[in-house]
Design brief:
By secondary structure, this protein is an all-beta fold. The protein is 0% helix and 49% strand. The protein has no helices and 28 strands.
Amino acid sequence: MPPTIETHVVTDRDSGPYAITTGPDGALWYTVVRAGRIGRLVPGEQPTSFALDPDRGPTIIVAGADDALWFTEYQAHRIGRITTGGEITEFTPPTPGCGPYGIAVGHDGALWFTEANADRIGRITTDGEITEFPLPLTGAFPSAITAGPDDALWFTLNQANALGRIDARGEVTVHPLPTDAAGPVGICAGADGALWFVEIAAGQVGRMTTDGAATEFPLADRAARPHAIVADDRGNHWFTEWGANRVGLITPDGSIGSYPLPASHAEPHGLTIGPDGALWIALETGALARVTPSATP
């Protein structure tokens, strides 16, 4: 049986909810990229939001180790922090025009982020101290980042068709993918001790062990443009199919299911396991989708 999918409108259709995470306050927090806002939704209640300057372009958001939410501002080239009460602080990395995109909490409690335009990985402590680490290649467009199972951070290199690994000292290792023009974007740590990621250009889901061995799983629709991926508590991985208006599920053995969203042209992007245990997806058309799994594929 397919999962149950509900759509909850949270903002104007053209505002663009993009990324979503579960906050320390039991609410869903999401970026509204085109409206320059941070949104908050407690399931079952009305949404609220907090305004940034309109040119900020808030992109990826995560819950920090300091009980606040941290987010990247791709257009403004800043890192933002918002408390659960709505107080916003912004920090500027040393490299101008760096284009911060992905962000994740590291094993050290700091926030680690990608600088898509500058081929660097940044680290910001919860008191705002920033360090940058250059990558050993140029034009790689580092994108999403996650804390791995090996005390390091792993990130996708969208234009280099590779995954990167950076340890606490800033040492970087690059692991090429088997497929040329894969265009990896989303990445997460799996329950199996590996890294799971999606290849937006090749229409595939990938798995990489911490020693760099990669396995790829093609989607039935190679034009689905998978964008973001998250692990659930059953050992499965859910991913958004931006180009196909669907949400996908891959089991640990590589079986894949794909389910249409009820709203047409929803443009699904970020997703998270919510405080209610359901899967929540940010839809660029001004809504969040709630997915209740009923069976594996």
